Amino acid sequence: MDAYDEGSSARHGPDAPSRPAPPAQRSAQADPAEPDVSHGPPQPDAHHGPEPEPLVPPRPEPEPVVPPRLEPEPVASLAPSDPYPPGEPRTGIAALSPRYQVGVALALAVVAIGVCVHIGMTFLHVAPANTVTREHGEAVDDWIYPEFEQNWKLFAPNPLQQNISIQVRAGIRGPDGMTLTTGWYDLSAEDGRAIDGNLLPSHTQQNELRRAWDFFVATHDSENRPVGLRGSLSESYLRRIMVLRLGRDDAVRAATGGSGVIERVQVRSRTSNVPPPEWSREKVSTTPSYRELPWWRVPRDEARGGVR
User: Fold this and answer.
1) What local confidence, expressed as pLDDT, does residue 84 receive?
2) Residue 244 parent element (H or E)
3) Based on CB atoms within 10 Å of each CB, which residue in 52, 91, 175, 177 is the most buried?
4) Beta strands 185-186 and 162-173: pairing type?
């Protein structure tokens, strides 16, 4: 047989290169009729194509992140809001009917006007003399005296340095018709004893007697003669206080031993200088001085306690 024979049974020489068999022959040799029994370990079946990948459950896709929705900020309204929301009951003046609201507004207006007038009158009273006080001084005094009189002696450059006590005595007609004169009653000392140690002393105990005496001195001259129309008013005011105090202290019963009637009273002041402190070298006389007023006849209605 020729060496160049290309049959399946052809033999090749040692120098001849081996040629691969055609595809048809290779497939015939790979599939023989009888199985080829080999003496080696069993080989795994050959699979044609890529091996199947293991089944892996699909990973859930992350949800898309949605940015938060920005709400527009509320714009402040220029219109005034209702202070009373619907359903909430109103209180105060707003709860009143319109007619009563008008009445309350008028009352507040009257009070405000009165306060302004009082402040203005007080300012004119304490202010230095000016055109308004010269023209309307009498109206200002009628408004201020006696309830709203201003006294700035505590803050004056030269405050009072004297002790002034008010004393009174009375002429009392007894049941037998005889008139007896009582001794001097120191009313200022009585008020002082009532105030001493009292945390809440009354306004009457502190100021009534003192203000009445200051009113009298301001409206009388050194001879105890009234100056103007207010002089007689100050006399009546001081006299009534004396009669009431004597009746309250039961001076009539002490003088007559029973019932009696006050016919007249006499008032005097006792003034003494305040002694200087021990470290001061100032020399001041402490001898008291007296100012006695004339006897005042007491009207019958005042004597029987009809005037209060």
Assistant:
1) 54
2) helix 229-248
3) 175
4) antiparallel
